[in-house]
Amino acid sequence: MDFLNSLLVQPFADMFAAPDFLMQVLWEGLVSGILYALIALGFVLIFRSSRIFNFAQGIMVVFAALTLVGFHEMGVPAWISVILSLGVMFVLAVSIERVVLRPLVGQPDIILFMATIGITLFLIGFGELIFGGENKIMITEELGIPTGEFIFEPFGGFLLLEQKDVTAVVVAAVLVIALLAFLNKTRMGRAIRALGDDHQAALSVGISLQTIWVLVWFIAGIIALVTGIAWGARAGVSFALEVIAYKALPVLMLGGLESITGAIIGGLMIGILEKLFEIYWGQPLLGGNTETWFAFVLALIVLLFRPQGLFGERIIERV
User: Fold this and answer.
1) Which residue of 263, 300, 311, 317 has the smallest Cβ count within 10 Å?
2) Which of 84, 73, 74 is nearest to 137 (CA)?
């Protein structure tokens, strides 16, 4: 009886008793969820355009952040470092298309997937060679990102919002809106969507596969840099960020591997639900640390009932 009370009654009583703390938990979950969604967008864009599951997206976040900090440590001004880092991500996109993807056109999907694992291992080794393996501090203040706090007193309680988190949410929202506008309003954006909707038909009307691949990998690089800055401002810059980036995997499982909407909503759902579960169920009942596995269990449960994810399209094959 006590267990059922702790499971079904007490958590909601705690939420009702301290609504200001509930708002704090929801905010922390929202920030994490938006960053998960950003990483998942990189996966979705590349998969839609090339049917390649980009295992390297996580290390791209780390590599972009390390590149930014590395340029600044060399004496380059902060915003010039951002521009140079974007240039590096473009060179990386071109190199991946020319050296890795182009020779593998027409190969089975598993070969292309293994190629992205090779890219991951290369970027880890190359990154450690160039930048070293020690933790680095993100150049938050140098980029003009505020580091203060907003303090509110909802319901007579206490709510603290770190300004860098607010900035991350705003920048992420602007990036997503810009990405959606690009995909829906520009010629190249429509070409990316066409390639995702019908690969063969898009190629038959003259859409360049190589150009689209470079473009989507560069966009994924931009997303990786923004995500690296946001996560780096919260937790520093190190290769440990790659592990955080893999939290996008259950987001993809939940939202669907081809759905941009699913990546956004799935990221928000997982960010908020894992934080709520950790605070109100995980710590009292399981001793905490549930954030490491909750998202994967939730995604697995969804897949049992909807294998294509909440927003993925059901694939029907005739045999």
Assistant:
1) 317
2) 73
Please, where are the H alpha helices in the chain?
A: 2-4, 10-17, 19-50, 57-73, 78-95, 109-131, 163-185, 187-197, 199-204, 209-235, 241-245, 248-255, 260-277, 294-305
* Number of other residues whose CB lies within 10 A of the CB of residue 99: 11
Q: pLDDT tens digit string along 277-300? A: 999 998 888 887 888 889 889 888
What residues does 159 pair with on adjacent strands? 152
Q: How far is CA 200 from the centre of its chain?
A: 29
Location of structure tokens 């294509």:
308
pLDDT band per the 50, 70, 90 thresholds, residue 201: low
Q: Is the dihedral of CA 211, 215, 218, 220 positive or negative?
A: negative
Model pLDDT, residue 167: 92
Smallest CA-to-CA distance from 65 within 216, 245, 270, 214 is with 245
Query: Nearest Cα to 136, choosing from 80, 63, 84?
Result: 63
DSSP string, 95-149: HIIIIIIGGGTTS-HHHHHHHHHHHHHHHHHHHHHHH-SS-B---TTTTT----E
Query: Does an H or E element contain 152, and which?
Result: strand 149-152
Q: Are strands 149-152 and 159-162 parallel, antiparallel or unpaired?
A: antiparallel
User: What is the separation of C-alpha 141 from the centre of its chain, rounded to a whole number of angstroms?
Assistant: 23
CA separation (Å) from 313 to 112, 197, 259, 278?
A: 23, 11, 9, 31
Q: How far apart are CA 290 and CA 279, in angstroms?
A: 9
Q: Which residues, 6+ apart, have CB-to-CB distance to 58 below 8 Å?
A: 39, 120, 241, 242, 243, 244, 245, 246, 248
